[in-house]
Amino acid sequence: METRLRELAKNLLTSGEADVVIGYTRHHDERRRAPVFVTDPADVGRLVFDERCLNNLAAYLNKRYKLLGVEFSKPAVVLKGCDAKAAVGLIQEAQLDPGSVTLIGVCCSGVLPDHDAADGERPFKCAVCDVHRPRNTAHVVGDLPEDPALTEYRPSERAAELAKKTREERYAFWREELARCIRCYACRAACPLCSCERCIADSNQPQWVPTSGHELGNWSWNIVRAFHLAGRCIGCGECQRACPVGIPLDLLNQHLRKVVSERFGYVA
């Protein structure tokens, strides 16, 4: 797969179809893979893909990063099937011009839940994935059979157990979890669909969300963000993986994905 990926990247750069290929490369810590921006055809050998390629690179297509039309005009981006869903979401919302980017889908049988996980371990998102072979991409690298489309969302056992608790128990759970939020906004930075160029949390005239890391501010920020992603979250789990204090943010997103699936028959 890596040989084919490198050949494709070289062809795109050499032909001028792309002025940068955004993919994955090896990290100095062998357990990790890091995003890489390849602009020289001679450097395509740096591109890799395996189960340690965790980042959702569709985030770089987000207007917040100001890469498209500023740093690069014709990017090509390596995307797992779940990542490609985020790119489709940006296109649906007119946040991304499909003619300005080349989407390179890579067949993926699953990734690790975190860089420190044991080989072969899989997160919940991979267990319910319906796009191990990417759809809606200009190119597909690798060979896996196409999965049946997901028609009904099934949350994880932990999310289902939380939903069975009483309202008071759920409130106590989230009060304890959100009290640890330090308002670093790593969840926002990692999310490919947090696409507001000026976030509500950064607005101070008027100030909708208190900026301090106290209970009111933490609840306001995390609940508002969850609702802004309702019907849009593609379940990549990057917000939770990026959280430095380990708040299970994806449980909120899973619940809202289930509600949207049941009430509107739609799964992002």
Beta-strand fraction estimate: 5-15%
Average pLDDT over all residues: 89
SSE succession = HEEEHEHEHHHHHH
User: Terminal Cα separation, in Å?
Assistant: 28 Å
How many strands? 5
Largest sheet: 5 strands, mixed
Low-confidence stretches: none
Cα Rg: 19 Å
**Please, what is the oligomeric state?**
single chain
How many structural domains?
A: 2
Shape: globular
Number of helices: 9
Helix content: 25-40%
Provide the spatial order of strands within the biggest beta sheet. 2-1-3-4-5
Helices and strands: which structural class?
alpha/beta
Could you characterize what this model shows?
By secondary structure, the protein is α/β, with parallel strands linked by helices. The chain has two domains: 2-141, no CATH class; 157-264, no CATH class. Helix content is 34%, strand content 10%. It contains nine helices and five strands. It has helices at 2-15, 81-92, 124-127, 157-164, 167-178, 186-190, 215-228, 238-242, 249-264; strands at residues 20-26, 33-38, 75-79, 102-106, 139-141. It has a five-stranded mixed sheet. Helix 4 crosses helix 9. The longest helix has 16 residues, at 249-264. The radius of gyration is 19 Å and the shape is globular. The model has no long low-confidence stretch (mean pLDDT 89).
Secondary structure: elements and pairs:
Blueprint: H1 2-15, E1 20-26, E2 33-38, E3 75-79, H2 81-92, E4 102-106, H3 124-127, E5 139-141, H4 157-164, H5 167-178, H6 186-190, H7 215-228, H8 238-242, H9 249-264
Parallel strand pairs: 1-3, 3-4, 4-5
Antiparallel strand pairs: 1-2
Helix pairs in contact: 4-9, 7-9
